[in-house]
């Protein structure tokens, strides 16, 4: 399993990559393996402020639907259009082409409270 060290992680299995006052968010390699084949991602919060730990959308696999939780307070700026046509990108490249949303961070320092790659690895016993 892959745990890029430059990312921060949540106990809900999302990752976040900070880019200035914006960030990209997706689900972890562990999460996509647990879910299985991703068939649909539903995000209806574009343009909205979403508080940390609140649901910003859902991800649907063949056998289940899971909520997606916002790692920090942020405004949803955009959804990855590529995953509309090819949701399997979340499975094949969860940290790259399979990213889910881009956000504007309310406070960049909030990211410091999230898990490091090593902490997340311990969380999932990997």
UniProtKB/TrEMBL annotation:
The UniProt note on the cofactor reads as follows: Binds 1 lipoyl cofactor covalently.
Q: Return the Pfam families for the record.
A: GCV_H
- UniProt keywords, alphabetically: Lipoyl
User: In this chain, where does the modification N6-lipoyllysine occur?
Assistant: 63
Instruction: Identify the cofactor(s).
Output: (R)-lipoate
The Lipoyl-binding domain is annotated at: 22-104
The UniProt function text for this chain reads:
The glycine cleavage system catalyzes the degradation of glycine. The H protein shuttles the methylamine group of glycine from the P protein to the T protein.
Q: Which family does it belong to?
A: Belongs to the GcvH family.
Q: Which PANTHER family does the UniProt entry name for this protein?
A: GLYCINE CLEAVAGE SYSTEM H PROTEIN, GLYCINE CLEAVAGE SYSTEM H PROTEIN-RELATED
Query: Tell me, how does this one assemble?
Result: The glycine cleavage system is composed of four proteins: P, T, L and H.
In terms of NCBIfam families, this protein maps to: gcvH (TIGR00527), PRK01202.1 (NF002270)
Protein name, as recorded: Glycine cleavage system H protein
Origin species, per record, is Sphingobacterium tenebrionis
